[in-house]
Amino acid sequence: MPRNSITPDKSERTPPSTPPRSTILANPTLPPLPNSSNTPTTITPATTALLEELSGTSQNVMVVVRIRPLNKRETQEYKSLNCITIQSDHELSIYKDSEPKNDPLTRDKQNKKQFTFDYVFGEGSTQEQVYTQTGSILLKKCITGLNGCVFAYGQTGSGKTYTMEGMESDPGIMKRLSQDLFDHIATISDKIDVTIKATYLEIYQEKVIDLMAQKQGLSGRGNLQIREDKLRGIFVENLCETPVSSFEEINQIITDCTQYRTKGETKMNAVSSRSHAVLTLLMEQRERDDDIGYTYKFSKINLIDLAGSERADATGAVGERLKEGAKINQSLSCLGQVINALCQQRPHVPYRDSKLTRLLQDSLGGNSVTLMIVALSPASVNFEESLSSLQFADRAKQIKNKVHINRDPKLQRIAELMEENKKLKEKIAELEAIVAGRLGCTPMKSPSKGRKSMGVGEQVDYDGETKGCCCIVQ
Prior knowledge:
It is built from 15 helices and 20 strands. The protein is of the alpha+beta class.
């Protein structure tokens, strides 16, 4: 017993009207206490959320489709009609034969293929509408400490780069997400320290090239290697990571690095992307009053504009353009094989068959909230390519990722124990209050500063905390 504790005489420990402790505990008329042996334990939503955060949750890859309008080449040169019909915000159908504009019922039903996705955007969709249903949703999850990935897929000339990069007057997902990210940081900067770094690379003919290094005039960054780390996951070794503190800075990086991306002209696209471009935002967060670091969280957001699949006879590619197209198709084929392996739950997934799939390893079947945007041409001349893209996307939406908040394992364990300790203290206080109330005792409270008088059965430690109960003091 502490030297300065105040203990009443034995004759005062138990009031005359209160039966002995053994009698109280054995009294069968008392109702059972919560969480006793005959009361089932309940898991609160807060506990469930904590368990999900620590162990990870399973989440399917989200897939949306965006259909661009017919262009002049398709309508004038090929006399193409629209071969895609949107049934709702989530369903579309594609027909092998062009649909007569005024008589959609004349189609042969055997030529109809129907698909369902998370969202379907029609020809009149705006950049803002697409971002609201894609990048905005992803960002809300990433700021909690989750990894995220948005990648645009489709044949060449289908509108992938427009969706991801956009134009100066009508920006795409990359710039809109970056703007919202810094707007969010401004609202929490008084409580949380947030650090943002950006990287920008391209995969050209199976070589990882640092676009940021080219912008800065650095050499030796033309064939970087992809590595893996327990905390960071998949990353590119020696890749330039540029700290950014405002949207204006990241906007300038996107604008400048885009100029260094490999592009070329084909019959299907005057400014065809000949490489896969990957903008990555690395975000670190920690509460300002956290000296230990247990609130530290790390997020990685990949924004990817894939090069489009293409047929040599349609693009008219020869020489270097033909070689580029072959490499693009090869990497996209490897991507398809990875998706097939994940959907069929094969024991081996061939991530290492290409640089693209290796870089997407976390995003497909790993620790990432992943969203795929399928860009389509509605022209009947592109029916085969559009159908192939839809079938590809239909398989991709079956992939399940295991997402969890990124923390250092040691710091995560500290956070887990501190949260558990907090909940146990709250439960003890709750149980003491219930017991005291049912036994007619006064709940124990910490005495006010400078207070010297104690109630019956109270014991005071050096720190002034009240312990015990008048009916259970030994």
